[in-house]
């Protein structure tokens, strides 16, 4: 009888866990649909403004800002989805360097404020220089997710406080707010995948319930830990990240640092989707470059032989000859002179490894951020510049 009772209890617990997981999945899919529809609706309306013959210069500028802001939001959602998958399977590789945590935090705050993601919330900062070893992009991602989470649960006019300091051998980043707070029953679950408490006010910063999970995984990859505290509903919440601190590194000799070219380059863009190809070509032309477009591998090879572009941005999912094979053939013909940048809609560690093996210099995930692409390009050009 005792064995039977234990078996029944185990079965009930397993069934309850499965039902909870199924509810979490359904809630996630519903939230994903919501989070994707909102920015797409805004982009569609902005596109209508752009095409309207009666638009004013102010309306055109407004539409451009909407498209830029909502595209950035979509990219953040997709990046988080990819990153949380990598983090859960241990496939994130950190590119470690010395980072001044206070400066990195101030930079993230400025970016989020400029993008309007913190709304009308006050963001007082109490920061002291402290150095850590980590991946700059991932550290900024940790700070971004904590701030966006705080904004989501804090009304406009509320306060999000930031503290960065050194305590013993640890660098401490604390993000606290005077917003909705966390109910006692939810406090142990805030870092669970897909878990979300009901948000208050507007949902402009929305999310999928993966941001804090990603924060925890990234912090632990850096050898640290993150904790959450709250005294209950309407008392605000505080998240504290602790990372191993290091001594400030010796200043670099600026005279020896390579400088970006700043000049116009001939860039080949190979993409079978006409809208994606033409819009990227146009965006790069507006940056002052000469840009050539091709829809497939054979056409791209003809351009490479005829025009000798300095840079080629190759989509991986091309018809016939895929981007990997095209990269190998371009590299065989042009050697190390040409800069090859892979463009893919996936972005897993395996994709990045395959891209390196095929001869690509860098790997960029879709949806592409032209400013990010320009930074990647400048970094590659700087490597080839004489010191």
Question: Can you give me a brief rundown of this structure?
Answer:
With 387 residues, this protein is α/β, with parallel strands linked by helices. The chain has helices at 2-51, 57-88, 101-114, 136-152, 211-221, 274-286, 297-307, 323-334, 349-358, 370-384; strands at residues 97-100, 125-127, 131-134, 160-167, 170-177, 225-229, 237-246, 266-270, 290-294, 311-315, 339-344, 362-365. Strands 1, 2, 3, 4, 5, 6 and 7 form a 7-stranded mixed beta sheet that branches. The protein has a 5-stranded parallel beta sheet with strand order 9-8-10-11-12, sandwiched between helices.
Q: What do you see in this structure?
A:
This protein is α/β, with parallel strands linked by helices and 387 residues long. Helices cover 48% and strands 17% of the residues. It has helices spanning 2-51, 57-88, 101-114, 136-152, 211-221, 274-286, 297-307, 323-334, 349-358, 370-384, and strands at residues 97-100, 125-127, 131-134, 160-167, 170-177, 225-229, 237-246, 266-270, 290-294, 311-315, 339-344, 362-365. Strands 1, 2, 3, 4, 5, 6 and 7 form a seven-stranded mixed sheet that branches. Strands 9-8-10-11-12 form a five-stranded parallel sheet, with helices on both faces. Helix 1 packs antiparallel against helix 2 (57-88). It is globular, with a radius of gyration of 24 Å.
